[in-house]
Amino acid sequence: MGTNSFLKRAGALLRIRNQLARECLAELLAVFVLILITLSGSAQMVTSSGTKGNILTAYLAGALAVMVAVYTAGGVSGAHLNPAFSLTMCLLEQFPWWKLPIFVAVQTSGAFISAGAVYALYYDAIQHYSNGTLAASGPRETASIFATYPADYLSLSNGFLDQVMGTALLIVGILAILDTRNKGVPKGLEPVAVALLVFSIEISMGSNCGCPMNPARDFGPRLFTYVAGWGAEVFRWVGGRGQGGG
């Protein structure tokens, strides 16, 4: 009885009652989970030279990561996970504009922290694969574990169109899944439907840019690679780099 009473008191003290703080922490955790699984799928593919994963398994990891992340925070923050989705909710007047910069900052921070976790998890593998050199281009580059890069043939304008179209399809698909006027997805399975949507986009539109579709997912880990030693090249449009999973 004494232990149960102590745990109840401790739980009451640790409980966060501020709704905005709860939403931000939920969003942070969900994005952390999303990026942890997504980047780990890419890391396993790259550092094993394709022997323990391929582009399909990396895409599948990214899609399933979305499912887990939505289940993680859907009941608290709505599991936006993506600044583009938060902006869409603002435009549809389903989310207050004043929360937008807060959610974007939290989403980007979660992605940055998660990239650091993946780097720690795969540190030895990255060092072994790259021979100790953190490169953003060349045959032993490892920057594509963390951020997506364009194919060698892709122009800037085509790359822009690729991302606009892929992200727009993602948003339209999510809105359709959540629209109660449509033939609804069985309650509780919405995250599964969103994961299948993400997977379908990745395997059909991933060859140009790797299909990030999420500014926080791209910028947070890319910023991490910049500060962790890959250098400013991670922000340059150059050829000779792989493409991590979405």
TrEMBL record:
GO molecular function: glycerol channel activity; urea transmembrane transporter activity; water channel activity
Main location: membrane
GO CC, any one term: basolateral plasma membrane
Transport listed as a keyword: yes
Entry superkingdom: Eukaryota
Record key words, sorted: Cell membrane, Glycoprotein, Membrane, Repeat, Transmembrane, Transmembrane helix, Transport
Transmembrane parts of this sequence: 24-46, 58-79, 100-122, 160-178
Reactions mediated catalytically: urea(in) = urea(out); glycerol(in) = glycerol(out); H2O(in) = H2O(out)
Keyword Transmembrane: yes
Protein's cellular compartments: Cell membrane
SUPFAM superfamilies with a match to the protein in the record: Aquaporin-like (SSF81338)
Membrane topology note: Multi-pass membrane protein
PANTHER family hit by this protein: AQUAPORIN OR AQUAGLYCEROPORIN RELATED (PTHR43829), AQUAPORIN-10 (PTHR43829:SF13)
Protein family per UniProt: Belongs to the MIP/aquaporin (TC 1.A.8) family.
Assembly and binders: Homotetramer; each monomer provides an independent glycerol/water pore. Could also exist in other oligomeric states.
This protein's name: Aquaporin-3
Organism: Pandion haliaetus
